[in-house]
Structures are given as C-alpha cells and as structure tokens.
Amino acid sequence: MGDNLTENSRTSGSAADIERQKRAEAIVNPASGLANDYLNLFNEIVMMIEQLPTMPELIDDILQWRPTSYQDYFAKSILPGRASALEAYRALDANFRRDFEAVVADLDRRAVGAVVAIRRQHKLQGGCTSAAMMEICARAGQALREVLLKATDLVNHGTRVSRESEQERADRLIYGKLRKVG
Known about the structure:
- The chain has 182 residues and is mainly α.
- It is 73% helix and 0% strand.
- The chain is built from nine helices and no strands.
- The longest helix is centred in the middle third of the chain and has 32 residues.
C-alpha cells in the first residue's frame, strides 16, 4: 500500500510540483534548447564593470569574477529547471553547441581581459574613478555587450541572427535594384 500511495502522489503531483515543473521547463528556450539564465553571469559582470567608476565598492566583486561553463553554472544552480537545462544542452545539435560555446569563449576572454585591465589600473592608481579607469570600463562594457548580443540571439532564436549594418543594408537594396534594372 505504501508503494501505491507514493506512486499515486508522484503521478498526480501537487499544484506546487506542477508549477515547479512548468517553471523548470520554461527556462529552456524551445527555439534554441538553451536557458537564458546562463547569460546572467555575463550581464552581471558587464553591469558591474560599467558602474565601477561611480560605484567603487564593486571592485572586489569584479576582481573575484571567474568564467563558468554552461554545464557548471546549471550543475551548481538552485533554479528549479537546472536539470532540464542540462538535459537540453546535452541534446543540442553538435554544430549549434559549438557555435554557442565559441561565443561564450569570446565572452569569457573579453570579460577576463577586462578584469585584468581593471586590476592593473586599480593597482596602478589605487582607485576606480580615474579617467583611465572610466575609459577601460566603457570600452570593456561596449565590447562585452556586442558579444553578449550574439549570445542572446543564439539563445532566443536558435541561430545567429545576422545584424545588418546600415551600409550593408543600403548596398543590398541598391544592388538588388540594379540587378532588376539590368
């Protein structure tokens, strides 16, 4: 009878269990099979870097930042969807996973490079509000945001969405019209 009771409660599930399962499934974007929560790791370091010149108390958090792989992030996570995120990641197409990991490696390199530059400048001047530090933080934030946009496109759309520049768009439109005329 005890086994039957356990089985019945497992199959019927409480409202809280059902809600938790829905949230767990919701963290994985069906378009990509990736969870956007992982990108919070990078959003946080970008925000701290950009705010450092006006909030010098962030220096310790920035200097302690380390890259974390997608798998490690969710293995250590307390999110209810961590197992689903890891399962979906293992099931990704190998080429798509390689593309995502290449973008993440670029984010890691840029973030670590920014932390190194900030550490060097902080040691050199002993503060976080110099013009040089402001420049380092502004450039690092911009460079990280550019790559973070690529990562976000991968997570949200399942492919790298090509962002056409204004010049590329003008060239394409003009070239397209010229081909129709000729």
